[in-house]
Automatic annotation (TrEMBL):
Residues 34-252 form the Solute-binding protein family 3/N-terminal domain. Residues 1-18 form the signal peptide. It holds the Pfam family SBP_bac_3. Keywords: Signal. It comes from Campylobacter upsaliensis. InterPro entries: Solute-binding_3/MltF_N. The gene is artP. Gene3D superfamilies: Periplasmic binding protein-like II (3.40.190.10). This is Histidine-binding protein. SMART domains: PBPb.
Amino acid sequence: MRKIFAFLVAFLSLFVVACSDTSTTNNDSNASLSLRVGTAPNYKPFDYKEDAKLTGLDIDLVNEIAKREGIELTWVEMSFDGLIPALKTGKIDMIASAMSATEDRRKSVDFSDVYYTTKNLYIKKKDNEALNSKEDLEGKIIGVQLGTLQEPAAKAIKDTKVQSNESLSVVIMELKEGKIDAVVADKDVSMGYLKENADLIGFFEEEDGSEGFSFAFDKDKQKEAIEKFNKGLKDLKADGTYDQILTKYELN
């Protein structure tokens, strides 16, 4: 009986692991390198799903570089805060998910060259006349997406209460419902929400304190992949493809 029970537990454990994220493979029969790429597809215009298909700046850049450099990709979807742990435990080989390169993250991962830079944008309800500067946020409730660079930025504000959620959409809804006072998020991601929500407005922006968005790899383990992606980025910029992709997502 114990053997049967143990077998069932093991089977169910494997089933849960297999279903914990979603994978999509781009096959290349001539590939010299295979990579499992982690992304959190809830961060438009960088990583999101449209008609059940992965799309966004990160997705297009990685797919195009992989095609040119002979890399076979398997896309693995998960929450943003789970990406680095998945990388460190060998569940994925690379992160392409609007991840900012910071000194703290460099302690555990290697980054490619920067492919995009952005800022933090602070958002409030348009009729909230009490918030006009960052200083006005002292003692207020601020919403952020869990695991992003904006989380420590919000926590650094004096006497604030920070509420984090895996989904920025949920955070925005909490702002609209009056459950929080403000949201701090990536500026380019925020612009999409502001277009869709006329009752919200950005009232303060600042540098995000990072080097910019980069692709991440486990520390000292993916030298060949990093070289290929750095070369690929340079080639895309040189022949105009990079600018075309930026234009596609209204990022230039």
